[in-house]
C-alpha cells in the first residue's frame, strides 16, 4: 500500500518566483518530496484580470493534484489573493497561501514608512486591504506596485543595469523619507534582494514571507498527521508550462540544487 505521507507537497507560482519559498521548505523539511509547477507561459499574472488569474490558478492546481500531492502551497501572493478561498472549497487537502509579511515588519518597531512591494493585483485585492485595516494604525504603510519587475526575474535577470534603473525609478519617490522596512509582497522579489539593498541601503531591513509560509505548511501537515518522518531518497521535481528550456535550468539554479 502506498504510504500517504510519502506523497509530495505541491508548490505553485506563476513562474519561478515561488522557488524562493520552495528553497526555504527544502531546507527546513528535509524528509519531504516536492513537486513545483511554474506557469511561466502565462506570467505575469499580476496585471491580468481577476477572472483570468482565478482560471489560471485553478488550472495549475489541477496539474499539481494530478501528481498526487498531499498539500498545495500557493507560493504566489497574486494567486493567493484571488483564488485561495476557491481552492480550499474544491480540495480537501491542506492549501497554504502566502501574503505580504506585514506583521513581522510592524514588530520591528522601527520609525518610518513600511514599503510593501507587490503586484498591482495583490495590492488591489481585499486580502491586502484587510491587512492594511488591521495594522494601518500602528504604522505608515506605503504600497508600491511594481508592474514589469516580475519579467526581469523570469528572464533570469537578477542584476543588470536596466533592473537597477527600474528599481531606482520605483524608489525615487521615497528620496528623503525615512524607511522602516521593505516587505517583499511577491515571491519573485527575494531573488533580487541584493539589488534592492544596493538601492535603498543596507540599513533598511528587507522582509519576505518564506519562513512564515514554511512554518505554516509544517504546522498544517503535523495537524493532519501528514509529515514524512523518514525519507532517505527525497525528490524535487520542477515543471513549467513554458516551452523555454532555460526556465527549468534557471529554476534549478534558483534553488541551488
Ligand atoms: N510570484 C507572484 C506573486 O507572488 C508573481 C505574480 C505575477 O505573475 O505577476 O505575486
Automatic annotation (TrEMBL):
Its EC number is 5.1.1.3. It holds the Pfam family Asp_Glu_race. The keyword Aminoacyl-tRNA synthetase does not apply. The active site is at residues 76, 186. GO terms for biological process: cell wall organization; peptidoglycan biosynthetic process; regulation of cell shape. Gene3D superfamilies: 3.40.50.1860. Pathway: Cell wall biogenesis; peptidoglycan biosynthesis. Substrate binds at residues 45-46, 77-78, 187-188. Keywords: Cell shape, Cell wall biogenesis/degradation, Isomerase, Peptidoglycan synthesis. It catalyses: L-glutamate = D-glutamate. It is an enzyme of class 5 (isomerase). GO terms for molecular function: glutamate racemase activity. Provides the (R)-glutamate required for cell wall biosynthesis. PANTHER family: GLUTAMATE RACEMASE (PTHR21198). This is Glutamate racemase. It comes from Clostridium frigidicarnis. The gene is murI.
Amino acid at each position: 500500500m502506498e504510504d500517504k505521507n510519502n506523497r509530495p507537497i505541491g508548490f505553485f507560482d506563476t513562474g519561478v518566483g515561488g522557488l524562493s519559498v520552495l528553497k526555504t521548505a527544502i531546507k527546513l523539511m528535509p524528509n519531504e518530496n516536492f513537486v513545483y509547477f511554474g506557469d511561466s507561459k502565462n506570467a505575469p499574472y499580476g496585471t491580468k484580470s481577476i477572472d483570468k488569474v482565478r482560471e489560471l490558478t485553478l488550472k495549475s492546481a489541477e496539474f499539481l493534484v494530478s501528481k498526487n500531492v498531499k498539500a498545495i502551497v500557493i507560493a504566489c501572493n497574486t494567486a493567493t489573493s484571488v483564488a485561495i478561498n476557491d481552492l480550499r472549497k474544491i480540495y480537501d487537502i491542506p492549501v497554504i497561501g502566502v501574503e505580504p509579511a506585514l506583521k513581522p515588519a510592524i514588530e520591528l518597531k522601527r520609525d518610518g514608512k513600511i514599503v510593501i512591494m507587490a503586484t498591482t493585483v495583490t495590492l488591489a485585492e481585499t486580502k491586502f486591504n484587510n491587512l492594511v485595516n488591521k495594522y494601518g494604525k500602528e504604522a505608515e504603510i506605503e504600497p508600491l506596485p511594481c508592474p514589469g519587475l516580475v519579467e526581469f526575474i523570469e528572464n533570469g535577470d537578477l542584476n543588470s543595469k536596466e533592473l537597477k534603473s527600474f528599481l531606482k525609478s520605483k524608489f525615487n519617490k521615497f528620496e528623503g523619507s525615512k524607511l522602516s522596512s521593505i516587505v517583499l509582497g511577491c515571491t519573485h522579489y527575494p531573488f533580487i534582494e541584493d539589488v534592492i539593498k544596493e538601492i535603498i541601503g543596507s540599513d533598511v531591513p528587507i522582509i519576505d514571507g518564506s519562513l512564515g509560509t514554511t512554518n505554516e505548511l509544517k504546522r498544517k501537515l503535523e495537524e493532519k498527521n501528514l509529515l514524512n518522518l523518514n525519507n532517505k531518497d527525497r525528490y524535487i521535481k520542477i515543471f513549467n508550462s513554458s516551452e523555454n528550456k532555460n526556465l527549468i535550468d534557471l529554476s534549478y539554479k534558483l534553488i541551488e540544487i
